[in-house]
Structures are given as C-alpha cells and as structure tokens.
Design goal:
It is built from 14 helices and 10 strands. The protein has 295 residues and is an alpha/beta fold. It starts with a helix and ends with a strand.
Length: 295
C-alpha cells in the first residue's frame, strides 16, 4: 500500500527507512511522506538532494535525517544530520589492534584486497601484474589476502604461485574483521561501508572508486580519505600494474608511511556511529505521556 495502512494497524511513533543509494531515495521518501503526522527518517549513504528538497518529505513537513557518505559533498537538506555509518561491528578489530604492529623495512607486509560483496575483477587483473613488476625480495615480503570472484580464483591463484607470492584467496571471508586487523594495507573500492570500516579500524587504504557508482560518490569518499592522509586515491583508469607497483614499492621501502597513515585513518573513524544513530532516533520520537520515546 501507500504506507497509511501501516499507521492504522501498527500505530508507529516514527517512520524510518534505509536507502543504500540515490536510485531508491525518491520512492522511499514518498512512502514515508504518506504516513501522515509522523516524523520521518531516511538513512542514506548517498542522497539526491533534489528529492529531499522538493519531494514528498518536504511537502508533508517531515524531517529528513540522512546518514551521508564520508565525502560530505552536499550540505544538509531540511534538518539533515550527516554522519558516516558503519554496517558491520568492529569490536573484534579493535580488540586485535593492540597486538598488530606495522612492519619493519624488512619484515612481512600484509595486504588485504577486497572488492566488496561481489568482488572486483579489476583487482584480479591488476594485482598479479603489479606484483610481477616488483623485485623478488619485495614480493617475498608480501602476504596477500584477496577476495576474488569465483570465476577468477583459479587464474589469480596460478599467477601468484608462479610469482612465489604467499596468498590466501577466497570468494568470501567470514572472518574479515580479523583479516582487517591483521592487514598493514587495504586495497579496496571506496563505498561508504568500506571507508567507515577502514577508518574505524585505523587501517590505511589504496582506494579505487567504482567508476559507475551513483553520482560518483565513491570518488568523493576516497578523496576525503586521501586529503586526511589516511590513504591514497587511485581512479580506476590510473589503476595500472605499473602505478600500483610503484605505490607498493614506495610503502615497502618506507613502512613508516603506513604507520602514519594508519594513525590518521583511526583519527577519521567514527566507532560510535551506531550509538549516535540510536540517540538521533530517540530525539526524534514524539513524547508520549510526558516521556520521549516511551513505549
């Protein structure tokens, strides 16, 4: 239905919705706007400001609370609240961090390579080619954990075997928090969740934004991380084997660079994002019998 039946049946105090990206923002805010008389909240990693400024949320005088991407490219709309969000717990990561030290100039360096839930073929193509350009001593120091698409696993494994690179490959890792904590450097896309996890865990990253992301929001995220000294932005057209090999050679030769970037990444993190969101919802709840948010 249009949402009005939900209010009659369930008598909610607040209408909320999660929006992963701007493609569904308009429809979500329309449904919330139809639940008359209620405060409404939309949490979105990215948002189409046109929808918030001119859509039904405004017509129905709703408040639009928005969880925005790290890049913070847009100003808040209506009474928006911009806050990076983490989707996965980082408690295990934080507990492990005290036992993990960034490597010396000759010690092992652990790379975590992940392309999100679907993997990223560009990493499967570029990573082995880049490592082939490093000298044998540099390759011997690397310990790779890489997520690959299932159809790419065999080819990537064969390439690393020929190079003598130690690598753990899988289409999915169910212990990613531990692997993130163990990594000295992350190579990944630049979605809001990935950036939030890396910064909260204090892990520097080479970020390769997905070129076809809505509104190019991943580039904004990666640019913010790079500007904060917590990582490096490599647009996909520039993410060549030669460019990646040069970046890896630089950090292998000067591991203090990784330590400094890790500290800056941790400073950018928001480990209390979930608590802030909960407090935000409580503040928006209408008072009932004199108590805000009372059941």
């Amino acid at each position: 239905g249009d949402g009005s039946d939900l209010r009659q049946r369930d008598r909610p105090d607040l209408a909320e919705a999660w929006c992963h990206d701007g493609r569904h923002q308009g429809g979500i805010d329309d449904v919330i706007g139809r639940i008359h008389g209620l405060p409404g909240a939309i949490y979105a990693e990215i948002v189409d400001r046109h929808d918030l400024d001119h859509g039904t949320m405004r017509q129905h005088n709703r408040e639009a609370w928005v969880v925005h991407d790290v890049g913070k490219r847009q100003r808040r709309a209506d009474t928006g609240h911009w806050e990076p969000v983490e989707h996965k717990p980082v408690t295990r990561v934080q507990k492990l961090l005290a036992r993990k030290r960034l490597g010396s100039r000759t010690g092992p360096v652990r790379l975590l390579v992940t392309g999100g839930s679907q993997g990223a073929r560009v990493f499967s193509d570029i990573m082995p080619a880049a490592l082939a350009l490093l000298d044998a001593a540099a390759r011997a120091r690397l310990i790779i954990t890489q997520q690959c698409r299932p159809e790419d696993l065999e080819a990537v494994r064969d390439a690393y075997d020929r190079l003598g690179v130690t690598a753990d490959l899988a289409a999915f890792f169910d212990d990613l928090p531990e692997r993130l904590a163990a990594a000295h450097l992350v190579i990944a896309r630049a979605g809001a969740s990935t950036v939030a996890e890396c910064t909260t865990a204090g892990r520097p990253a080479i970020l390769v934004p997905y070129p076809w992301a809505v509104d190019d929001h991943q580039t904004a995220n990666a640019r913010a991380v790079a500007a904060g000294g917590a990582g490096w932005l490599m647009p996909q057209p520039d993410f060549t084997a030669a460019a990646l090999a040069a970046r890896l050679a630089a950090v292998l030769d000067a591991p203090a660079t990784l330590a400094e970037a890790a500290a800056k990444a941790r400073a950018m993190g928001h480990p209390d994002a979930a608590r802030k969101l909960a407090e935000l919802v409580v503040r928006m709840m209408p008072e009932r019998n004199g108590d805000a948010g009372a059941p």
